[in-house]
Structure prediction request, 844 residues.
Amino acid sequence: MWSYVFRRVLMTIPTILVVITVCYLMLHLTPGGPFDTERKVSEAVMANLQAKYHLDLPLWQQYLYYLKGLLQGDLGASFRYADWSVNELVAKALPVSLTIGGVSLLISVVIGVLLGTVAALRQNSAIDYLVMLIGNLGSAFPSFVIGPVLILVFALWLSWLPSGGWQDFELRYMVLPMALLTFINVSTIGRVMRGSLIEVMSSNFIRTARAKGLPTRTIVLRHAFKPALMPVVSVLGPLAISSITAAVVTESVFSLPGIGKLIVNGASNRDYTLVLGLVVLITVLAVLLNLLVDLAYALLDPKIRY
Amino acid sequence: MTFKLSRSAISASVLLALASGAAFAAKVPAGTALAAKQELIRNNGSETETLDPAVAESVGANNLTRDLFEGLTATDADGKVVPGVAESWKQVNPTTWVFKLRKNAKWSNGEPVVASDFVYGWQRFIDPKTASPYASTYGAFILNGIEASEGKKAPSELGVKAIDKYTLEVKTPYPVAFLPDVVSNLNLGPVNKAAIEKYGKEWTKPGKLVSNGAFVLKDWQVNSKVVIEKNPQYWDKGNVQLTKVTYLPVEDGFADVKLFQSGENDWVYQLPPATYEKYKQELPKDIRNAPMLGLRYYSFNVKDPVMKDKRVRQALSMVIDRDLLAQKITADGQVPAYGVIVRGTAGADVTAYEWAKWPMAKRVEEAKKLLAAAGVKPGSKIKFTYNTSEYHKKMAIFAASEWKSKLGLNTEMENMEFKVLLKKRHDGDFQIARNGWVADYNDATTFLTLVQCGSDQNDNGNCNPKAEELIKQGNQSTDPAKRKAALTQAAKMIMDDYPMLPLLQYTVPRLVKSYVGGYSTKNPMDRYRSKDIYIIKH
Prediction:
């Protein structure tokens, strides 16, 4: 298995290179540059700005310059936030996103799997309809609707929690954004788990287990649960990435200083280095999470071996 | 060279010199009970791009540098120029100003602020290596400024000199009557050379930033907050009421309002579109709204085959009902505009078209005649370009409906991302495009840059050489009245060419807690120093 892991990690290098190259070209092909502002700067000032950030060099030289920095772990200087390097910006935003996204995902997995299991085992019962309702609500209502409703109830009406902002990992500032992300993720995980378990429970090997006289509890926990988790594990990769790095709406609604906000601002400001730095980060995360998902398959399914 | 300073110019200098003995800070009205806790939370609209005054560009960055640093002059809550580090100044000849610095001004590390700090700050600002976006904007008012910003002259050749420790001499390329206003901008502030040389790029970080303003930097969490505290070394600290100001970088207007409603923000940056009337009803004590020196307008590309005909541009401008637009469409207190100069601008009068007073039916009739004479028939297509935003979309739909219903013209609406629009506008790749301008300083010349020949800010591509000459003559004059007359006439001449379609004068509708004192709605530049603000007992 370790050689498989090693090969997969090695594979990240060409993946990152391809992603950076494509992203680099796309950014430079997009009309409008980092220093195009409502107040147009003079040609001389534009030349000064471009020289400061090496944009006066031919594109291939800029690209090599960037790659050289990247190899040394330097993501470059932000074009927009002049006082900060991209490394500093990412280092400040990542812990926020990891905490909010990571914790909410963990809670979502526990609640989602539990609700999905109960719903599958009590198919067409009241609890099943409740789980399906939560699932459909979470899918149907976008986060920019649920978020403000949470703020209205818990911050403005009840005054229990702040309506937004961030204060050094203070729990009360994290509760509402985590609740929002959890709600959305639970709806996905719950629905997938329910569907998967219902399907597994109607399989031949479960019928065999029942015929052998095994109690339902043993059948579910020992035989059905593991294979039923496979589709859940499959969706966890994309869910983790979207919760950690692409929670743009959540970050905007609750004014959180996370990765999602940085990437949106970076793209709209044409902050090439910031966007590229974040793309590198997201690519690495995606590759690693997908690797973890693949390894989890092996644990869940004895037919899979690496 | 001999010259004669006008009486009003001399009076202005003398008045300011006399006034310099007084303190210019939070004016707490007699009988006002102040809160024990003098702390303010203020949204700044977005994350500041820098705390280095030389390269600060956005409104948010300037709000912060205005609190952290102090220039030769400053502007108070009513937008009036007041002494800053300079306690007096005098225009000793048309192109030379002498600023006398106060001897009790100190850096936050206790060292005195001296004339050479300004010389260093200005030379650093103009240096191409610093790459300040404003280098040519303000450099244009200092002798050799443009050449130095382009690297054609050394920064040391800039027209600023320390005569002695507390006397600064500034030379301008022509008589810049509004120089005291220009030098209130912190791009032209002092910076601490020793701190910059010691910390390099890190000099603006908490614990390292040495500043000379009413506040010092305490904490800076990117995309979360910037916290500043009262500067114990500040020369006028006795008149600074606030002990702590927290700047938030909230971009989402609705999130901003919710933070305000839940008591976590005292100062909304700007209300979300179409909410002004709602909050005016719901929070009448907190609502604040006032016109500022800014203009919403549409640019006509005068090089476009259709728009090159002045009659077409005039017809399109005549039929837009600005009153209806202001009252029913934007509905946020903005003022209809018919000229490039907006109300409250110093250095020129507001100009307006004669037809602005006509009934709409007469305007439409005249506009139809103009279009017919230009050979543009009803049913013809025009193209309008704007950046994606509900606000701009609403205005664009209104304009298109006016052109359709009154002139029979079909408008193709093209919306795009802001940066793409900027690129198209700067490249002249449009027919009619959304545009806007907020004054950098309170003088007519900031607005005239929008329509002057060859100006970087002129997206229309128009040029009126006679008006250009008039502007030049006005700027050479040392008589404020003559200058004003020349610039007003030039503005009218240019606007008679219809290079742009002026629509509305900006207002800034926002919510500010009723217990926040010192906020004035007479501030044309919408620039508020925290020094002027205080918290009333509540």
About this structure: The two ends of chain A are 5 Å apart (CA to CA). The mean pLDDT of chain A is 89. Chain A touches chain B through 51 residues (CB under 8 Å).
